[in-house]
Design brief:
Four Helix Bundle (Hemerythrin (Met), subunit A); single chain; mainly alpha; 5% strand; 150 residues; globular; 5 helices
């Protein structure tokens, strides 16, 4: 297997938790928060999709990706992420975009260095670890909020 195939498989596996959680989310779950935590399930799901699309655009250089990352711009939950179908569609788009892009990265590109304000200078492979952990981290938060939040 090539590096792209290995990392594609790792991303798909890491996103399984998000898939299992998002399959059981209802529209009534979207405004749920955990205690005094600032972010709702709807915000976190939207945030995952937006950041994944930003990653495709900024790290992998896909200029066809058009995204306005409202959750990143706002930096807080304003209570607007309540359209379950729209959020699920954006999550499907972001997941499909990353999966497709990963599979097309030439072997030599994984070691290229990139610099972003979010995580400094890293190889594309190292930066890719960041998006896997970001998605999994928030998926865990969403599962906890869904189970214990109100």
């Amino acid at each position: 297997m090539s590096t792209s195939q290995h990392l594609q498989a790792a991303y798909i596996e890491a996103r399984i938790r998000l898939g299992k959680v998002s399959e059981t989310i209802s529209a009534a779950d979207l405004p749920k928060k955990l205690g005094a935590a600032p972010n709702s399930i709807g915000f976190l799901l939207q945030h995952i999709a937006e950041v994944e699309l930003l990653f495709c655009k900024n790290v992998f250089g896909n200029s066809e990706i058009k995204v306005i990352a409202h959750t990143v711009i706002d930096q807080k939950d304003l209570g607007e992420w309540t359209d379950l179908a729209a959020i699920q569609a954006l999550l499907a788009e972001s997941g499909n975009s990353i999966t497709t892009i990963i599979g097309s990265v030439p072997e030599e590109d994984w070691t290229k260095q990139i610099t972003t304000k979010e995580f400094g200078t890293k190889s594309i492979a190292e930066a890719f670890g960041r998006i896997i952990s970001h998605t999994a981290y928030h998926a865990g938060q969403i599962a906890m909020i869904q189970k214990y939040g109100s």
